[in-house]
Write a structure and sequence with these properties.
Layout lengths: L17 H11 L4 H17 L10 H13 L7 H35 L1
């Protein structure tokens, strides 16, 4: 029986994944959870922008293209629909304030005229 026993060889350990390495590095530096999520988010956006290629395969040209892509949308970081809602909401608030102002002027002028 002893001759039949073979030692089980451990499976080859997978190399750590990029985002796991990033998370470990951030945690070692005691950054906040929010900072960790932000870093991981931007790294994922960069990876998806470059067609899911590993950052080791990428160079300055891809980083420049990504930053140019981001700067092109920097004037309006929100989706157009959200911007429209904000403008509409702002217009509505402005209109309400104007109506209040006009109402208070009418009220003060009518009370001044009757006094």
């Amino acid at each position: 029986m002893e001759g039949n026993q073979t030692e089980a060889t451990p499976p080859a350990a997978k190399p750590p994944r990029l985002l796991d390495l990033v998370r470990d590095a951030i945690r070692r530096k005691h950054y906040s959870d929010r900072t960790e999520r932000a870093y991981v988010h931007w790294i994922k956006r960069f990876i998806y922008f470059t067609g899911k290629r590993h950052p080791k395969e990428l160079g300055a040209a891809e980083v420049t293209a990504f930053l140019n892509h981001l700067s092109g949308s920097a004037t309006s970081p929100l989706p157009p629909r959200v911007c429209t809602l904000e403008v509409t909401n702002c217009d509505f608030k402005l209109e309400r304030q104007c109506n209040r102002l006009n109402t208070s002027r009418r009220g003060s002028s009518s009370s001044a005229g009757s006094a």
